[in-house]
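Supplementary Text 2. Reproducibility record for the structural model of the 319-residue chain.

All settings were left at their defaults, and a single model was retained for analysis rather than an ensemble. We include the record here because the model underlies the residue-level annotations in Supplementary Table 4.
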Amino acid sequence: MKARISIALAALAGTFVFGMLTFRVLFHMHWLPSWYLTLATVATVGDSRIHPNSSLQFISVGLLIVFGAAFWMFSLSILVSRFLAIDLGYYRERRLLMKIGQWRQHFVVVGAGRVGTSIAHELVAKGEQVVVVDTLADRVERAKEAGLTALLLHGLTTEAFQATHLEAAKGLALALSDDAQNLYAYLAARSLNSHLQLVARAQNGESAEYLRSLGIDRIILPEVVGGRRMARMLMKPVAHDLLMALLNEEGAQVNEVPVDASSAIAHQAVRSVRDVFGEDFTLIGYWRAQSFHMAPKASDVILPDDTLVLIQSVSESER
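Retained model, structure tokens:
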């Protein structure tokens, strides 16, 4: 669009230069009347003072009428379409902001690159409401073309994040490739909602430790995770495939169950899990006091404020 506007304006300017030179040189008029008569001719209004006498005058005025009117209409159509696009874009943006403003317990993904859009697609596939944000317009447009709800942020500031309705969100994923930008985004987001579930991407261990010192417990180092996965594929391929099947919920569903004082499982032994939840459920561990307890003993007691991780078997017809 910008290129078309530049071409239209250049063509219109060239037409005016040609018209003014025509009236100045061939009709011996001053510059101001030359400009006015050029405007009248190009706008197809005309002026009674234009009386070509020579062949050169006839040709020059004729060319000015033909090309001037064409360039004039072309320029106007480009400018009008530009303003309409701006208005429609503003209207769509307002509707999008209103829709996001009605969301509750949604997720915000910062970074519309490959990692960020992959996170968003996974969440959407699980039925979650997700908005992807970035400071680069081309990334935001690609995310929209991929069917995601995406917003362009003019900076990683608290004011910018207000558009995501972050105060009502459930979780935030920091997926930018720049650790410093992830840090800025975290600091801005924390002031709006200090209870967010947070997952951050880091490029190296030093950055990961710094983010962890600020209170982000769940940090992914893509290169480290990829290396570990490949090593485990080599050493324990079947165990690795089982873990991946669980993560992808292939034949089983992984559930997180918070326990409070009124829960039926509170103060019960681990052996009571199936009595409470059913035969399809298996407890693989629980989260307590900022640590995960894997493969608990049958006699271990489940307490309020624990979070249980249960695997539920899914039949072929339920998949």
